[in-house]
Amino acid sequence: MSVSEKPTLVKLELEAASPEEADLLAQLDPRRLPRHVAVIMDGNGRWAGKRLMPRVAGHQAGVDSVRNTVETCARLHIPALTLYAFSAENWKRPEQEVSFLMRLLRHFLRAELETLNRNNIRLQAIGRIQNLPLTVQEDLQWCMSSTSGNTGMVLTLALNYGSRLEMVDAVRAIAAKVRDGALQPEQIDEELIGAHLYTAQLPDPDLLIRTSGEMRISNFLLWQIAYAELWVTHVLWPDFRRPELLRALVDYQKRDRRFGGLNGDAARA
């Protein structure tokens, strides 16, 4: 199945772990789930600070939220999930914290490969991957290669990612084609620009979730989220679990998506 295609399900293949989850699942229409969910995972440092723990403890705790979110989306047959794992601006953080994040990423890739394959998840990454430490690049490539045959959800990790940098790279690639005579300036349109973004093989996000209550986009998928539904929760990322994700999906299905025109159904007709 192409990532751009919507799955056809007769039921949600997810068992509720509590009455709250059962109630939320009962409200979901499996035919109207988003094709692509993007998540800004925020609040690790504040979570740790509230517990008088070092910031890295928050990052460590956030791995459980990643695992829970990935498995839930895969079992709901959401075609694509993109997680903002490490921004290009995160290099400005203390060296000790950055080094820990790189080690944590490597551990995640090694520890979760079996889970990714069991859930038929294909891993990919976007961003300036070439600037990550070589050991991280090697583990990332190994994990992507090991899941490349999977046909279920596409899990995308945004690593050393910044949307403005992504646009710069796209413009450079297009300009090079114009310079080489392979492209005329008048041929440049929205479709062409989209084809040169890191996410060219993915549908644009339908739903963008941000944790920790901050009302910012933080340089994440600026082009792609032009018509995404935004959902912000005050829950800090290490506390984000299935019920909160289900609440976001239920709220998403209640919205009238207009796409700059008529109501959602008319706009898609």
Q: What keyword list fits this structure?
A:
9 helices, 6 strands, 13% strand, 269 residues, Undecaprenyl pyrophosphate synthetase, alpha/beta, 43% helix, 6-stranded parallel β-sheet
Could you characterize what this model shows?
The chain is an alpha/beta fold. It has one domain (34-162, 205-268): Decaprenyl diphosphate synthase-like (Undecaprenyl pyrophosphate synthetase). It has nine helices and six strands. It has a six-stranded parallel beta sheet with strand order 3-4-2-1-5-6, with helices on both faces. Helix 4 runs parallel beside helix 5. It is globular and about 60 Å long.
Give a brief outline of the structure:
Helices cover 43% and strands 13% of the residues. By secondary structure, it is an alpha/beta fold. It has one domain: Undecaprenyl pyrophosphate synthetase, CATH 3.40.1180.
Number of domains: 1
Which outline best applies? globular
User: Radius of gyration, Cα only, in angstroms?
Assistant: 19 Å
Q: Element order, helices and strands?
A: HEHHEHEHEHHEEHH
**Cα distance, first to last residue?**
23 Å
**CATH homology superfamily name:** Decaprenyl diphosphate synthase-like
Return the CATH class.
Answer: Alpha Beta
Strand percentage, roughly? 5-15%
SS-derived structural category:
alpha/beta
Largest sheet: 6 strands, parallel
Low-confidence stretches: 6-10
Named CATH architecture: 3-Layer(aba) Sandwich
Specify the number of helices: 9
| Average pLDDT metric | 93
Strand order of the largest sheet: 3-4-2-1-5-6
Would you report the number of β strands?
6
Work out the helicity level. Answer: 40-55%
The CATH topology: Undecaprenyl pyrophosphate synthetase
